[in-house]
């Protein structure tokens, strides 16, 4: 390792001496640095369990790109090192999320700001956000059951003692770093020789304050409900009962604003709302494979993981290596990534197993329609009796323009199922609350107190068999599919997740119409149930670890010796040779069209195993898997580009949707020469993206308000037009290859090309401009070019940009490929993991690890992750940091 990197690493961690009151709390020598983890005493120090003088004792060694390797001999110290290392890199982003879920945004930022949960797209103003989160974590009066412990307390109490210690240590590690930052102890050297303070965004903020273990458990719940309750922050946070009495002519359909079901569906599709946001697979998505012995050249298992997560916010992933050696035995040696604030690896590998996740299609909640007491809208009918809603008086603090603090109160309401909500579209209540009806939500993941145990036990799994067993016995995975394998083991897939026990038969008996039909047309498989009948409550399975959910025996799994995959469609085609069928619709669809990305996922595997992808042989290796994964093929172009060039482009002029004549020659020449990929040197990828996004958005019609096409142009009456998008439709007997053959006669597809040409011209880019000069990171200070395409256009190598359409600044990537791993094992059983963290380790612009990994990713420079002692030693970028805290000292200085 060169000297420059070593010096940068030392400065990156800041001055190691302590100042003022902080020093008084720590014994001399409790914070030290040595040349490496072995020579500095990190491995020969006294085990805290044998030395009552030390509460925490842990070493942190950073390797290339700032990846921390944390070595401890007790659980608390492992958490302490994790929390400190993470805080070094990402403190401000984490603390802002914690104050958000404490319901304190209005207190610190005023009432007018907003907060977005990046993966689910939920944006709420600060007041609604505060009332939502305070109500989610409030105690509730539950009649004869008395006070029910809230979600974070249940999670804490159910967490196994060892990981309670990890969680407590993590909070203490974060707090140690906060104390040092407040004391001015951390700054970074810059390339120009200057220094900058660490975490300038929050170093002097009023909200820079110690965190608690309660904050940690709230964070776990916040992550559990990412695909359920927190999709509806505004809808729950602002839900209030109506005033007055209903009119004599009021009908149960008044919640629909007097519109028909079809009109309501059209309204929802045309207006931003949580139901449509939930279906955006460009967000909240991932790709993954597991290959068994029959699919690899050397007969060794191979696991590929590639979550598509945000490049900003706390749903970024943090890469670390966590090593726990107790009483001379290795209890844990796990490497991979976790979401911010989670002291366990959520996607990763050890010597025995590697795994990854993708977001599942199963729903984690259901709506219930309530029959309201006309004279009291906070009472509802249940089994023939009127039941009072649970009332939660909530108070928040709100910062005023002059800096003063006022208080705002609101009573929040819950039914026996869960929180009340009001879902609107363009101001019209679709699921409203009036004097006749209201809607509530039951969330299975608000009842899931097994999340942290699931991953804690997985991190210590000693075999694939143990891993698979824990998948079903814990059943704490909240919303993701899993693939896994181990050395010499089969490829495993499972959507063994927390799913409400709502069978198709129950939906047929209990659907609340017309609301079930309205919601179902936007979120197929999500039921709206009758909340007035006990028989419409969720069922239970005897093999489930908790009531109200499906057990593992009723959830889809598959093991094969060739491969399994998932790219965000349902479990159905985890391997096309063995479709999974017979599961309830709330889990996912079957015999239904797959997205272009899913089809490409499957085709990449099938082509390779057929020797039909132009590469040597007919098996996977770690190297050709990495090449395939980042090849940036655009599958819509594979299917349709030549048809566009050979047919639509033969018209020298096309009409846009605004009836503007558009010349095609220059654009069509670029499309003809384009390589059909989204690499940095691909010329024409942006033009295709603009075309395809418009073509699929309106495959059979024009945008609302657009002029109507009359063909020929002098015909005063619209004529019948061929509006099917594909010539060959979907076939369940050939799902990987259908639909296909673009319908080039479709005038709306032709108009989409004309609109795309106009969009590229308006943005000021040449049609044959290389993508690397158009598409760049949207979260870094440097103009780092980023390859990749979007999910709707059939990319496997994913980006998502904001805004999604091209403008004069090009495409700014804020989402997409995040952590990428390709893991196998060598002859000795050691994991061989090549990986990338696309957005880099730190969110602090002053940190040298703010964008270095991103630059490597831009050039497709994979890193072999150091795992063994010798590999860590060879890749280290500075001396180990040894953190010790006496038992007598305050653990949160």
Structural overview:
- By secondary structure, the chain is of the alpha+beta class.
- It has four domains: 3-223 and 870-886, Orthogonal Bundle (Penicillin Amidohydrolase, domain 1); 231-276 and 370-435 and 506-528, Penicillin G acylase, beta-roll domain, CATH 2.30.120.10; 285-363 and 447-503 and 535-625, Glutamine Phosphoribosylpyrophosphate, subunit 1, domain 1, CATH 3.60.20; 632-817, Aminohydrolase, alpha-helical knob region (Penicillin amidase (Acylase) alpha subunit, N-terminal domain), CATH 1.10.1400.10.
- Helix content is 27%, strand content 23%.
- The protein contains 23 helices and 40 strands.
- Strand 25 (480-485) and strand 26 (491-494) form a beta hairpin.
- Residues 1-50, 141-148, 245-254 and 701-720 have low confidence and may be disordered.
């Amino acid at each position: 390792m060169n000297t420059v990197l070593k010096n940068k690493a030392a400065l990156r961690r800041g001055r190691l001496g302590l100042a003022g009151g902080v020093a008084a709390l720590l014994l001399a020598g409790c914070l030290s640095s040595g040349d490496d983890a072995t020579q500095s005493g990190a491995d020969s120090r006294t085990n805290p369990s044998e030395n009552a003088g030390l509460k925490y004792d842990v070493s942190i060694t950073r390797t290339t790109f700032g990846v921390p390797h944390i070595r401890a001999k007790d659980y608390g110290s492992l958490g302490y090192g994790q929390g400190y290392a993470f805080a070094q890199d990402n403190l401000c982003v984490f603390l802002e999320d914690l104050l958000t879920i404490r319901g304190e945004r209005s207190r610190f930022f005023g009432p007018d700001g907003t907060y977005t949960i990046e993966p689910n797209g939920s944006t709420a103003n600060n007041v609604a956000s505060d009332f939502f989160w305070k109500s989610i974590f409030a105690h509730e009066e539950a009649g004869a059951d008395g006070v029910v412990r809230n979600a974070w307390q249940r999670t804490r109490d159910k967490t196994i003692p060892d990981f309670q210690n990890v969680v407590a240590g993590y909070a203490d590690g974060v707090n140690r770093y906060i104390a040092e930052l407040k004391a001015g102890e951390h700054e970074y050297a810059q390339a120009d020789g200057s220094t900058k303070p660490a975490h300038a965004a929050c170093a002097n903020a009023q909200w820079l304050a110690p965190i608690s273990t309660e904050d940690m458990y709230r964070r776990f719940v916040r992550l559990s409900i990412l695909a359920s309750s927190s999709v509806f922050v505004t809808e729950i946070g602002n839900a209030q009962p109506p005033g007055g009495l209903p009119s004599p002519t009021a009908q149960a359909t008044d919640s629909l604003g007097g519109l028909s079901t079809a009109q309501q569906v059209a309204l929802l599709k045309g207006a931003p709302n949580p139901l449509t946001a939930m279906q955006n697979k460009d967000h909240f998505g991932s790709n993954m494979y597991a290959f068994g012995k029959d699919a690899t050249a050397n007969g060794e298992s191979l696991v590929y993981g590639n979550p598509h997560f945000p490049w900003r916010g706390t749903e970024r992933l943090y890469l670390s290596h966590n090593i726990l050696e107790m009483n001379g035995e290795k209890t844990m040696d796990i490497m991979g990534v976790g979401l911010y604030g989670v002291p366990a690896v959520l996607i990763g590998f050890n010597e025995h197993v590697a795994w990854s996740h993708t977001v599942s299609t199963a729903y984690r909640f259901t709506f219930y329609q309530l029959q309201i007491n006309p004279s009291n809208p906070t009472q509802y009918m249940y089994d023939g009796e009127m039941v009072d809603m649970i009332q939660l008086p909530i108070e928040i603090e709100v910062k005023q323009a002059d800096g003063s603090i006022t208080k705002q109160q609101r009573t929040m309401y819950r039914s026996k199922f869960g929180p009340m909500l009001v879902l609107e579209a363009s101001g019209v209540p679709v699921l409203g609350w009036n004097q006749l009806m209201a809607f509530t939500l039951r969330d299975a993941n608000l009842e899931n107190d097994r999340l942290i145990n699931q991953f804690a036990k997985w991190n210590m799994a000693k075999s694939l068999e143990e891993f698979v067993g824990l998948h079903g016995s814990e059943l704490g995975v909240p919303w993701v599919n899993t693939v896994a394998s181990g050395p010499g083991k089969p490829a495993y897939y499972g959507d063994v997740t927390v799913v409400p026990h709502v069978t198709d038969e129950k939906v047929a008996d209990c659907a609340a119409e017309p609301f079930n039909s309205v919601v179902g047309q936007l979120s197929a498989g999500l039921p709206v149930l009758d909340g007035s009948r006990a028989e419409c409550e969720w069922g239970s399975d005897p093999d489930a670890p908790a009531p109200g959910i499906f057990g593992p025996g009723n959830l889809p799994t598959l093991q094969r010796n060739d491969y399994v995959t998932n790219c965000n469609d349902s479990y159905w085609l985890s391997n096309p040779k063995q479709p999974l069928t017979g599961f309830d619709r709330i889990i996912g669809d079957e015999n239904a069209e797959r997205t272009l990305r899913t089809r490409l996922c499957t085709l990449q595997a099938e082509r390779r195993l057929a020797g039909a992808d132009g590469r040597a042989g007919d098996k996977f290796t770690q190297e050709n898997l990495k090449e395939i994964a980042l090849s940036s093929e655009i599958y819509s172009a594979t299917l349709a580009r030549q048809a566009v060039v050979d047919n639509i482009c033969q018209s020298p002029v096309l009409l846009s949707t605004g009836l503007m004549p558009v010349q095609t020659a220059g654009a069509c020449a670029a499309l003809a020469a384009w390589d059909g990929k989204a690499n940095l040197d691909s010329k024409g990828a942006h033009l295709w993206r603009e075309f395809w996004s418009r073509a699929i958005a309106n495959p059979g019609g024009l945008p609302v308000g657009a002029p109507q096409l009359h063909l020929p142009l002098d015909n005063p009456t619209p004529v019948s037009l061929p509006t099917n998008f594909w010539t060959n439709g979907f076939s369940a007997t050939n799902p990987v290859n259908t639909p296909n053959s673009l319908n080039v006669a479709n005038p709306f597809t032709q108009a989409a090309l004309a609109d795309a040409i106009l969009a590229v011209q308006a943005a000021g880019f040449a049609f044959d401009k290389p993508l690397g000069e158009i598409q760049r990171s949207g979260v870094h200070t440097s103009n780092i070019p980023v390859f990749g395409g979007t999910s709707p256009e059939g990319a496997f190598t994913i980006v998502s940009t904001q805004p999604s359409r091209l403008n004069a600044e090009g495409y700014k990537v804020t989402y997409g490929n995040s952590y990428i791993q390709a893991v196998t094992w060598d002859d000795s059983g050691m994991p061989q993991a090549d990986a990338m963290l696309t957005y880099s380790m730190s969110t602090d612009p002053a940190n040298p690890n703010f964008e270095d990994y991103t630059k490597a990713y831009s050039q497709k420079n994979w890193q072999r992750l150091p795992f063994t002692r010798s590999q860590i030693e060879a890749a280290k970028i500075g001396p180990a940091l040894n953190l010790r805290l006496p038992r007598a000292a305050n653990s949160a200085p």
